[in-house]
Amino acid sequence: xxxxxEAVRLDQSDPLRNYRREFLLAEGTCYLDxxxxxxxxxxxAEGLQEVxxxxxxxxxxxxxxxxxxxxxxxxxxxQLARILGAGPGxxxxxxxxxxxxxxxxxxxxxxxxxxxxxxxxxxxFPTDRYMVEGLSKLMAGxxxxxxxDEANILTSLNDEIAVLVLTQVNFRTGRLLDMKAITxxxxxxxxxxxxxxxxxAGIVPIALDDCNVDFAVGCSYKFLNxxxxxxxxxxxxxxxxxxxxxxxSGWLGHRNPFDxxxxxxxxxxxxxxxxxxxxxxxxxxxEAALTLYDEVSVExxxxxxxxxxxxxxxxxAQHSETSALHLVxxxxxxxxxxxxxxxxEHAYGLCQALIKRGxxxxxxxxxxxxxxxxxxxxxxxxxxFAVDQIVQSLAAGEAIQSxxxxxxLVT
Length: 411
Ligand SMILES: Cc1ncc(COP(=O)(O)O)c(C=O)c1O
Fold this sequence. Notes:
The protein is of the alpha/beta class. The chain folds into 2 domains: about 5-15 and about 295-400, Alpha-Beta Complex (Aspartate Aminotransferase, domain 1), CATH 3.90.1150.10; about 45-295, Type I PLP-dependent aspartate aminotransferase-like (Major domain) (Aspartate Aminotransferase, domain 2). Helix content is about 35%, strand content about 15%. It binds pyridoxal-5'-phosphate. Pyridoxal-5'-phosphate binds near residues 97, 98, 196 and 219. Pyridoxal-5'-phosphate binds near residues 97, 125, 127, 171 and 219.
């Protein structure tokens, strides 16, 4: 039997307990949606203030050189490289994950010598699939989307496949795929692999170089807390930089953008994935957010994330009221990212009822209630509180009460 005293004890010995103060979350809010949009921290708020009032305002256009705005995409890329287990010069921060998927998949196809099939999972995040569909239309006959179940990835690989596109942590089920084993199996058949790290960057230990990954993309607004719509990133292994081609040949991916040459010549490094001018203010938020990783390791975060989820599940199991919630995806937490997903007949209504009680998760169609666990600002006492609220809400039948089922556009 887990007691509230146990939560207090665990919090007292938590080495990350002081980071909660940095995050500007309202008192009484247990924020379990950092896997969708991370909250603002004081270091980000102050970083933004500085960019606006001490850079943009006084120095205007001179800021591109004076404050290194032009280098932000590569500078943040190298910050991310340290978090994602990559050497420098292989990651650039830019654009959205969707756009970077387009570039990465096209670049992977450009290395694939005549093969055209792009394999992904049937329940991958829609944008990963949609981007392949878009490329298929554009590349008429040189790109074809094929699908498999997540459980059958390894047995679906064959030497007709050009590119494998996978999301390391499934956005619905939370399942964590084995990056090293899958990449190796794909390479044995000559397949180029693109990993989407949207739900794993900054929360699951990743070793891109060690796993021999070809390409990777991901968001910075989830566990990395870079802010709403913050720029994404793209990784390309150094060994591919001289031979790949990516189709969005914007001027900032040129070898010498300020020569203003009429003809495109790709940059020799990772900067060839840059397209146009980047959102400096959003980039500055990401740069400030990532300084946290100079103090805290992803391994530390993973250890606490697993402990938080274990506490949450154990406490949930103590209450018969929660029998209507069915955990989706692996029961073994080592095979999950930092997210628990539950099927419930009235998942949307339950999600809304819980938000009113201060427990913020989200809903994913058709019937999933999702909770993300970010160890930087969540405590074991938050877990205790969240489970109490879930139990009380279920006992009171709030999921089907009127007012809780009015769907908003964003769920
Ligand atoms: C796995 C995955 N890939 C890509 C995206 C979308 O990225 P963006 O909207 O930044 O293009 C998301 C968004 O939640 C996601 O979960």
